[in-house]
Amino acid sequence: xxxxxxxxxxxxxxxxxxxxxxxxxxxxxxxxxxxxxxxxxxxxxxxxxxxxxxxxxxxxxxxxxxxxxxxxxxxxxxxxx
Length: 81
Hints:
Elements: H1 2-47, H2 55-80
Helix pairs in contact: 1-2
């Protein structure tokens, strides 16, 4: 019986660990969506007006989106491993 209890405890620890990392991935996805949405809203409202449009600001905001996407992608890879 002692062996069965050890196996049960190991499975419970694995389940707890898996739940913890899946919860992190969920929070990471929610944060990514919020940040990219805010950046997209900034691009649509501020940069799309002709008087505010500068090519530098447009390129800067788009490159920030690409950098944030890569950042969250690598965070996701780190959580998976």
